[in-house]
Amino acid sequence: MKEKTAGILGGMGPEATIDLMRRILEATEAHDDADHVRCIVDNNPKIPSRIKALIEKTGESPAPCLADMARGLEAWGADFLCIPCNTAHHYYPDVQKAVRIPVLNMIELTAQAAARLAPGGLVGIAASPAVRLTALYDGPCAAHGLRVLYADAPNEENLLRVIRQVKAGNTGAEVSAAFGGSLRHLAERGADVLVIACTELGILDVPGDLRVLDAARVLAQGVVDAAKGRIPLA
Question: What are 161-179's pLDDT values in tens digits?
C-alpha cells in the first residue's frame, strides 16, 4: 500500500504546529528518513484570530481562510488533512466541505482515547474559553459515555492568560506552574482524566502525578496511523 501524505493546516499558533511535527516524528517507528510520514504544511499565522471571533466577538471568521488553506493542501498533493488547533475545530465542517479528501477530527480522536483511559469517567478539559463556549468536546465525549468538566471562571481566565503567554514565546517555569495549578484544580474537582485541549498548552511541562491526555499527541498518533493505513479514512 502506498503511504498517504498528510496536509497540516498550521499557524494556530506557529509553535504548536512545529510541536505537532515533532510529535509526528516521535510517534513514527523509523530506521531511515524514508520511514517517516510525508507532511505538507501551510504554517499560516495570518489566519484570523479564533479568540477574537469566538470569545471577544470582534473578529472575522477564520472559516474562509481555513477552507482556502485546505483546498491548497489538497491541490499540493495531501491525501488527508489535520488541524492542530482545538478551537479551530469549530470550523471543522467548513474545512471538510471545502475538499474531497478526509480531515482527521482531533476532538473525536481525543474523546475515543479518553474513553479508553477512563471508561464512563469525568473528563477535565484544560482549554481556551472558546472550547467551552462552542461545546466542542461535549457531544463527542457524551457519545463515548463520558462526562465533561470545565475549569471554573478564575482558572479559565488563568488558562487563557497562559495561552497568551505561550503565543508570546514565554514557555518558562512560571508559566508551566500556572498551567499546572489549573490542571490540579480540575483533578481536585474529580476529573478522572485531564485533556489538554489547546495545542499551545501542550507545549508546557505538566505535573507528573496527574493523569493527562494531550490532544496534540493523540492527533500526532492519528496522523501516523492514517498515513500508514492503520485506521480507515472516510
Answer: 999 999 999 999 999 999 9
